[in-house]
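Escalated from tier 1: S-adenosyl-L-homocysteine holo job.
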Amino acid sequence: MEGPRLNGIGMTSARTRERLVQRLQEQGIADQRVLDRIRNVPRHLFMDEALASRAYEDTALPIGFGQTISQPFVVARMTEALLAAGEVLRVLEIGTGCGYQTAVLSPLVKEIYTIERIAPLLGRARRTLRELRIRNVNFRHDDGNIGWAARAPFDGILLTAAPHSVPQALFDQLKLGGRLIAPVGPEGRQELFRYTKGESRIDRQSLGAVSFVPLVSGLQR
Ligand code: SAH
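Tier 2 regenerated the structure:
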């Protein structure tokens, strides 16, 4: 299975990956399943070869079309927050981007439904995940603001782009007791929240300050 892209840096970077995992642990990531995914998912395959040497730094990096691959710490934090309450079967992800968050989460849940508004990014993510033999992901080119009603309800929803406030449609597509993890707010002043859907209200807990690209409307071909 290992083509040239899967060897090379993938093998030589074992030490830098280990350093990254250690750093995330020091910063409070405790879920061993999540740390194992950060260790094992070849992040360099999700970015331009020109940037691959920086793939195991804990930083966001450009992936084209004005978008970024999320910072590993934030991916770990969001994944951990989503999984903390117990078994999560079906997840909706808004903002596939390069598919790195999708890949980290994929074996920890049953099915992922992921939506991206920029067609070429979605196509590339689809190819990368196929190359990694990740098969429990359903892709959709659409505006994530409206969610994916035909496949609702979801046990968990992840937004990897920041709205000013979470669209009601997404809360509607969340199961009772389900969790929605989202960065919220204008650029430069965003906070990561975990929302839990209850019988009569939605509970909100802050997970700290973050920096994401904005959730925007409409499609790009
Ligand atoms: N999840 C990615 C990060 C993606 S960056 C990772 O693991 O690295 C956020 C992505 O959200 C971008 O690709 C952007 O195009 C997408 N996005 C922004 N607004 C969107 C919308 N309304 N619907 C779907 N995707 C959207």
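The two ends are 31 Å apart (CA to CA).
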